[in-house]
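User: Calcineurin-like phosphoesterase domain ApaH type, Arabidopsis suecica:
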Amino acid sequence: MGESLVAILVTVISVLGAIHQVKSHEDQPLSGIAVHKITFGLNEKAYVKASPTLLGSNGQHSELVLVQYSSPKPSDDDWIGVFSPADFNASTCPGDNKMVQPPRLCSAPVKFQYANFSNPRYTNTGTGSLKLQLINQRSDFSFALFSGGLLNPKLVAISNKVAFENPNAPVYPRLALGKEWDEMTVTWTSGYGLNLAEPVVEWGVKGGERKLSPAGTLTFARNSMCGAPARTVGWRDPGYIHTAFLKELWPNSKYTYRVGHRLSNGALIWSKEYQFKSSPFPGQNSVQQVVIFGDMGKAEVDGSSEYNDFQRASLNTTKQLIKDLKKTDAVFHIGDICYANGYLSQWDQFIAQIEPIASTVPYMIASGNHERVWPNSGSFYEGLDSGGECGVPAETMFYVPAQNRAKVWYSSDYGMFRFCVADTEHDWREGTEQYNFIEHCLASVDRQKQPWLIFLAHRVLGYSSTYFYAEEGSFAEPMGRESLQKLWQKYKVDIAIYGHAHNYERTCPVYQSVCTSHEKSNYKAPLNGTIHIVAGGGGAGLAEFSDLQPNWSLFRDYDYGFLKLTAIDHSNLLFEYKKSSDGRVHDSFTISKDYRDILACAVDSCPATTLAS
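Assistant: Predicted structure for Calcineurin-like phosphoesterase domain ApaH type:
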């Protein structure tokens, strides 16, 4: 087996969009690998052994593997790479992008760790071990020992193969709100194509009769990617993504479900059982709690390194969301989801990380630059931020109730909330298709039934004093406010929330850069403006603020955290900012209003002349 293996290529895309670059994004552990110096160095006296060889025998989809290794010439810069599929052969690697050197290995590792990570005496003894967590990713695994560090990598030894008992198993279900209020969608991943099995969901009211519903199946191929590394060394088969639509749900009711596949011989393969609570009827007067954040990313619980090693805090955010799950009705992750940046194995790892959340409450996404941006691909911005993905994995892995899943703008109703979700990676300016959608979303809601109108987007279209926006001089995306602030004002948007800037910031109620209220915590309508929030501290490396704090900026926090909106009733809303480190509230405010306050005229919110006047 050793002769068929060659040394490793890892190409890391760390270039952000043409407009903004967050400093922490430069921290890429594998970006320093000297590809042109890769050599063979298989040594008969070196070994790598992995155990157990069979994983998931009790139905679990993640398991720790003990990796033991030895080298006759140990060094501090020796490292272990984890590969899946286990055979990584360069003989048929596709070359795609003339600007990128042809790869000498077909696929990048899933992750890596230094050989001395938990073995301080490794350089003396030449032996060591690691415990690495693997998740079910539809293929087998192997572990390779490299010497020479990242600058002169040399393949020294390769392990036996390790595999899950059923690599095709249905895994990582994720819920999303449907296009109608009484619909829930469930999406999951498997290795079962339609030629092998039919995807199905068994579901019903908790304790009641259950029924089977079919699911649709999607996947995508290497040629769907727009460039390297997604199309070259970062490519990994995504398996099959199945989505079922559970319709005519009773409002605010508990349901149980499990996802599975009916094999050609009639046998059924099932996941474990999950449960969710259906949406309330639009306008229903019950306590409704929604969590919102952006830019979370993923990290490895075993401490191993990966392509974007600046997202360690994502584990804290995930932990806090799981801890508070019983008091959460829905989650909105507003862009920059997992920062796979063209390394598709990372998407599986992300959906495994959020599975306890997304399998229980709707997990809604927005499109960010790290999902979508790529040259000549129709994205509004230029840049290499998506690593060649150009939106395809995100738009396939997650369901959104958009008319066109390649244009990730949509509205979602949840009880007393109306959420209007914009796609900042497509043009939003006046006269565009998206601008018309945004106005229709804001204008069509019945504010007597759904008083709480929330605008969501990835890039900051409103206000932010993050350093790169301050350097722009616009304190937001150029042209953002110019196009949209008249809509926010006309339709009395309560709160607008963004990611992209990796911090937390809250403005006063503001219109045309002027505070329309000097209250800071207990707002009573009319506000005469919109409160703008940056919630980009989900887990990716933090972005600093400018030294200048404008008058409209009330609260800034250079830390990781997330938001929670609680609609107490039709007249009272509670806003909370919680830190990921402790889950405690570090900023909050309330809004109190009546329907007549929504109807009342404010500056630029009513026609200049009416018959009444």
